[in-house]
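Entry 12.
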Amino acid sequence: MLAAFLVRHAVGVPSIVWMNHYAPEDFKSLDAVIQLLTATRLPLPPLLTLAEMANYLHDGTTRWTTVWIYRLSLIAAYVLALVLARKSPVRFAAAFVLAPIFLAATLAIHPAGAWVYDILQPALLLGFFAALAAIVPRRPANVLLALIAGLCLGLAELTRPHMVYLLPLLLAGALARIWPKRTSVIVAFLLPVAVLSGGWHVHQYANLGQFSWSNHGGFNLINAWPMVTPPALVPETQERVAPGRYTQIDTPEHGVNSRRLTRAVLAFAFENPWRATVHVAERLSILLSAPTSYMRSEPRSWILPLYQVAARYAGLYMLLAGGAVALALVLQPRRATDLLGKPDNLLLLTGAFSIVLVAVADHGEEARFLLMLLPLMAAAPFPRLGWGLVPRGWAIAAGAAVAALVLVVQVVATGAIRHQADVRTGDFTLARNQPRPPHSGPLRVLALNIRGRHWDDGKQAAARLNACLAQADIAGLTEVAGKGWFAALYGGSDQAAPFARAQGMDHAYAARERRWWRDQLGQAILTRLPGGRFEAAPLPRRLSDGYNSWMVAPVQWNRQTVQVMTTQVGGADAELQLSALLAVFDALPAPAILMGGLAKLGDYPPLARLAARPDTVAIVNGDYRPGRVPAAEWIVAKGFRQAAARRCPGPRDEHPGLILELVGR
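Predicted 3D structure (C-alpha cells):
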C-alpha cells in the first residue's frame, strides 16, 4: 500500500524516443513498427517498444508502458526484494529499511530520465530469482516456476544490451539449481530463454552483424575512459530522421565506429593494466558515492542524504559479498554447482558484476545507473558458502577489518565527490626576472585543450605541446591538471608550469574544481608578454556533474593592454554558462581575446552574432565527432584584424590547437 501510494504520480519515458532519434508519430502502422524493430541497430528493447507503439497506435498515448508497467515495476521490484529476504529475520529487517529509502530516492532522481526499462529490468531479474528460489524438490508447481523463471530471464535480457554479459552466469546458476529435477522442469526454463533471448540475438547477428543488439556501446564506453585516444572512425551521415532530432546513428557505420572504440578501450586496458585497475577503482568510487544530479535535474529531497549513505554501504556490501562468493568458486571449483545453485549466491554475483559493469561502461549518468541496481541491493542476500562456523579470533579480526574498510570507503567516497574550486586572484609566475622587450609584431594566440593527464604517448605528447607553445606569444590552455598532493610535498606544480618554464613563458593557473583532495582541473594562461594580476570566477551550475570557470588577465602588447580570457564550458549547463560568459566578455574593453572550449559550433546564434561583429575576429575548430560533443575550441578577438590562422597538433589527436595571428586595427 505504501509503495502504491508513493508511485501514484510516477511516469516513465518511452524507449522509442531514446537519443531523440525516433518518435511515436514517425510510425503510422504496426507493420511500420515491426519493420523498424527488425531493421534497427539501436538498443531499443523490442517487446517494450512494440507494446508502447501498439498503445500509441491504439489511443495516441504510451500509458500501457510509461504509466502502468512503470509503476507496477517500481512496486514489484521492491516487493520481490522483501519476498526474497523473508526467511531470515535479520535480512528481512535490512530489506524492510532499505526498500522504502531506495524507492523514495528513485522517485526523486529518476524523473530526469525515467526510462521504463531502468526499472523493468531489476523487477524481472528479481522475479527470476524469486521463481528460482521457490523451486524445491517434490513441489508440484516446479514446471510452472521454471517457466516463470525462464520467461523473466528472457524478458530481462531484452531490456538492456549489457544483460548479454550476465546471461551465461545466470544460466549456469539456474541450471545448477534445477538440473537434478525432471527434464520437464529444465525444458520449461530453457524454452522461453531460447525463444526470446536466443531468437533475438540470432536475428541481430545474422541480419545486422551485431551480437549485443546495440551499435552504440563503444561510444558509451569511451566516455568512461577519457585517457584512451579514439581510433580513426569511418565517416557517418549528418542526416536526421526529422527536424529537431539528433544526428542519424541507426546506421552500419555507427556500429563499425562503436566496435572500433570498444576495441581501443580494451586494448588500452590490456596494455596498461595498472592504469586500468586504478581507473576502475576510481569509477567504482564515483558510482558508489551515490550521486543524485542527473541530466537536467538537481533533485531536492530530505531522503537523499539518507539514501546516499544507505546506497554507498549496500553497494559496498554487495561487492564484498559477491567477491567472497567468487573467491569460494576459485578456491573450491568442485563445489561450483553447489555454490551457484544457491539463489543468494547467484544474486550476489549478479549484483557485484553489474556494479562493476555499470561503473566502467559509461560516464555522466551515474545517478541513473545506480537506480537500476538498488532493488538487487535491497534484497540484502547473504553469501551461502557452507564453510562452517568461523573461529572467534577470525571473527573479531574480520569485524575489525570490515570496520576499517567502512571508514576507508567513507573517505574515498567523499574524495570522489567534485567540489567547486575557490574563486581566486593572483600574479603570474615569472619565467625570468629581467624585463621583457616590447612586442610590436603580430600577436600569436594559441587555444588548446590538453586533456589533463590523459596522454597515452607521454614524451611524444609533451613534445607536441611544446611545439605548439613555441609558435605562440599567448596560450590559453584548458583541462589542465592541478597540483597533486604528492607533488605538493616536493614543490610540484600544476601540469602547465613545466611547459611554461621550458618555453620561457610567464604562467598563471586557476583551478575550476577539486576532487580527491586536490585541484582536479583548471585553465592556464602562458605568455611571453608582460602580464598583470589575473582573476578567476566560477560559471553558473545547475545541472552539470562538474564545475567550470573562466579566468582573465591583462597582457601588455604593442603599448596596449589586452584582456586575455580563457575558459571551458560544457555539460548540461553549456547554454547557461555561455550566456554568462559572453556577458563578461562583452563587458571587457577592447582589445580583448576569448579562447577555449565553448561546446557550440559557429551556427549557434549567440556565437554567430558575436563572430559577425565588424570589430571581431573569430575562428573555431568545428570537427564533427560521431556520437560526441564537437571539439569546439574557439578564439574570439575584438579590436583586432586577422593576419593568419592555422592548427597545430596537440597532445591528443582529437584536440588540435588553434593558432590565430592578430594585428591591431
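Annotation: Residues 507 and 526 are 5 Å apart (CA to CA). The chain has a mean pLDDT of 86.
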